[in-house]
Amino acid sequence: MWHTARKAYKHLPVPMQRALVKIYGRLIRAERIRPESRELERFLEESERWEPGRMREYQEERLRAIVRHAYETVPHYRETMDRLGLKPGDIRRIDDLQKLPVLHKRDVRALGKRLRSKAVPRSALWSAATSATSGSPLPVYRDRPVSLMNHACYMRLRRWAGFPFGVPYVTIQGRLIVSDRQKHPPFWRRNPAWNQLLMSTVHLSDENIPLYLREMRDFGARAMEAFPSCAFIIARYLESRDEHFPLEALTTTGEPLLPTERDIIEERFQTRAFDAYSTAERVAFSSECEEHNGHHLYAEFGITEIVDEEGRRQAPGSPGLIVGTSLHNMGAPLLRYACGDVGAMADRSCPCGRTLPMMEGLASRVGDVIVTPDGRMLPPIMVSWSIKAVSNVIQWQLVQRTPDEVRLSLVKDGPLTDKERAGILEYFARRLGADVRVHIEQVDQIPASATGKVRHVVSSVPLVWGSPNRWSGRDEHEGDD
């Protein structure tokens, strides 16, 4: 029923949309806010300070259970393990996972129902889809236990950010709120069950932002969860008018939160931004804590590996594909699933005292990484520092089709000066190499995806892992600019 309702939603009149949002909000609250959810939240509050050995024992106990379940009830894993001569008892430790091949998005698409457990009825699964920033959406399935654990992890993020349940908050993320064809407000709907104001990601403009801010004030918003690019667009509007919109908490997800964006977002909303990473496939979850010292991996949620194209583990500090293994989704388990995203393990602890492992250099996807002619891989943060000295930048995007040529598009208030252009070219020559051709263009708008995301880097150059160059999340010249 809800699948049909979601498909019809954008065609319904506003009063019916409002009613549907209220009903759906109450149903989701009843499903997720329950005694077992509170128990999971208490568990996560305790486990985040476990000794590493105890966490590893927990992960491996869950791993053995899900591997056995997958072998006995999921056709794909039975066939794969039989072909490799493996039995569930051969995968008892985290290191044993490397005996299994990495599963890619193309495999999930081709396998379809063969990745679902025969022991879990279809009626007990929720269907969802990846955001499809590139390519077509990928259908994925979740059962109730993984949905509850995902909610508990989300509440951990909110706890760390000082964002308790019940606080009135704004959501500007990928949900369909109003049709992108709609030209007039309201560009939002209210969800009373969560004290939430849902706002469209695809209607942000100089003309509409004042309407957004007025609605946020009328709603009494005290917190926000948003795509970084959406929060940044509103923050830039506030900056252009020397205004602020004080919030008590702010979380970002869905795209990399770059330092140049963070500075303006935090200044204009007068709060710290807590960046998070999660996947529609429910195999990985991570976020910043109060120290903002990289991402803590939520190890209770899944096992995260950083691997090269052959599935071999990368050393700490070396970038690779993020591969996740679900520890809770018995309905449609994914073992060693390549999320299509990029990151690096950090060989350090956090001053906050939590013992969860650390991840850094997070990029949304493989195509967000720039490849130089000499084979170095650079994250989107590198480009963000190139425009640090350019005034009034609203949006930017770098497109790379070949290693020796890039195109940087800028949306800004006022013309790009010769000095600013020369500064960008000098920076790129230093970081990419003097032989790389750099084209700079000023444009009126950079199109967002259907979910409202604006990718900062779009690269189609293949990546080659295992390079001796370590991932650099920070430009060594940034202090000189």
CATH uppermost class of the largest domain? Alpha Beta
First and last CA, distance = 56 Å
* Strand-pairing-aware structural class: alpha/beta
Query: What is the CATH architecture descriptor of the largest domain?
Result: 3-Layer(aba) Sandwich
Strand content: 15-25%
Pick out the low-confidence regions.
Answer: 467-481
How would you characterize this protein structure?
- The protein has 481 residues and is α/β, with parallel strands linked by helices.
- It folds into 2 domains: 33-167 and 222-363, ANL, N-terminal domain (Rossmann fold), CATH 3.40.50.12780; 369-480, GMP Synthetase, Chain A, domain 3 (2-Layer Sandwich), CATH 3.30.300.
- The chain is built from 12 helices and 20 strands.
- Strands 4-5-3-6-7-8-9-10-14-13-12-11 form a 12-stranded mixed beta sheet, with helices on both faces. It has a 4-stranded mixed beta sheet with strand order 19-18-17-20.
Task: Reconstruct the topology from this structure.
Elements (H helix, E strand, L loop, with lengths): L1 H8 L4 H19 L2 H13 L4 H22 L1 H10 L20 H7 L13 E5 L9 E5 H18 L7 E4 L15 E4 L4 E4 L9 H11 L3 E4 L1 H13 L8 E4 L6 H11 L3 E6 L6 E3 L7 E3 L4 E6 L12 E7 L10 E10 L11 E6 L6 E2 L5 E2 L1 H7 L6 E10 L2 E8 L5 H15 L4 E6 L14 E3 L22
Parallel strand pairs: 3-5, 3-6, 6-7, 7-8, 17-20, 18-19
Antiparallel strand pairs: 1-2, 4-5, 8-9, 9-10, 10-14, 11-12, 12-13, 13-14, 15-16, 17-18
